[in-house]
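Summary for the lay section of the report: proteins are chains of building blocks that fold into shapes. Here we show the chain for NAD(P)H-binding protein and then a coded description of the shape we predicted for it.
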Amino acid sequence: MLLVTCAYGKVGRQIVPYLAKKGFDIRAIDMNPEIKNFEKQGVKEVLVGDSRDAKFVAEAMKNVDQVLYIPPQFTYQEAKMGKIAIDAAIDAKVQKFVYLSCMYPNMSTLLQHRMKAEDEKYLLYRDFESGLDWTVLRPSTYHQNIFMKLFYDMGQYPSMCDIDTVVSWVDPLDVADCAAKVLTEDGYKYAIYTCSNETMTPREVAAVMSKVSGKEITPISVPEDKLVEYWPDYFAGSDSFATETFYALHNSYNKWGWAGNNKQLIELLDHKPRSVENWCARQLKAAGIEPAVKVADTE
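The coded shape description reads as follows.
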């Protein structure tokens, strides 16, 4: 049995049904009651609960062989939640723990990266004490941040950073394939992998969107005082940490970008990495729009 945490968040909703189709027996946990939708998508068990609650997490770990730990997004309790999961996995004597971190967790200007760096360090030291078999995957920016149908309708691609800033991208299904490999094959104990594919500017991403859709999509750089208009979920109803994290993301990307290397992703995958072009085409098809160009499944 594979336990997946934060399974109904933005990352989990992409990864969990895909892994279920690949044959994993999954117990998915999330505080969102809509996680029960997974029962119709081949997920064996779903549990609704708060992963800040150590008793709930310990109960969820029972009879689990493996853990795919997906962290929560933009919460000041992220590091605490990671430590709870690591401790519970050790107590339950799970055979494999895969931590889904982020590229460059030591980039401390990004507040959510500080949390992941703290959890990675905790995982290392707890392993020294327990012998837990772990692997860390460090994804770059996920493709699901390209809301193809929305941007197609808008005719714009809004970016939180300058449109000529370089950012690396990765497809969530490629990350799922990497997770599947390290969960099922030997040789990945105590290993850390960067999961990053194409490095592109927002201007280049918009050009790909235009090519795939057959409609001109213009990249725009959203100034700091307009961020709330484009990404209201991070401001309306969120706590101050989420808001400050988003501003820090905006400022860090503008100053340094977030470029990575794709060598380790290519080595882990048994196929060509899925491209931004591939993602855009898939999203258009899902929305009932035929792409203007034919795009291969994994290139």
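Put simply, here is one thing we learned. Residues 142-170+197-259+273-299 form a domain with the UDP-galactose 4-epimerase; domain 1 fold (CATH 3.90.25.10).
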